[in-house]
Write a structure and sequence with these properties.
The structure is a single chain. By secondary structure, this protein is mainly beta. It has 2 helices and 9 strands, in the order αβββαββββββ. Strands 1-2-3-4-5-6-7-9 form an 8-stranded antiparallel barrel. The radius of gyration is 16 Å and the shape is globular.
Length: about 140
Amino acid sequence: MNRNRDYLNLFGAWQLVEYSVNAPGSTQIKFPFGHDAQGLIVYSDTHMSVQIMRRDHQLQDNGPSKENLAAPALTGFMAYAGAYTLDFYNSLVTHHVEHSSNPNWIGTYQSRHVTFKGNLLTLQTAEPLLIDGEYVNAALTWRKL
């Protein structure tokens, strides 16, 4: 990353273009939230927030009983937020997860390789993630809003 230009380019809101994963050593690409996932990532000068969901996220019953709606509502949705740090030398951004829809991520550090190309930002996991019982590398491409 060019320290001055790219650091400033990271600030702002980005719309998800594509979220894909593949197992290390595999060429098979999967789309955990579908080919048309929706999402938003926002970087301020000190903090970030990200939300990703399936486009076909199902409406929930709004009847009088709201019990047991949380689990289905979170299926096909993920979000986390917190501070972040930049490692210009290695082109990495590390998200310091303070809040998350996945409680196992709270208190963790999620490092991503950063690549800019025009108005696109690609974040790739620095280490494989455990998703649905399988270790995968993830790539998320975002378009600047």
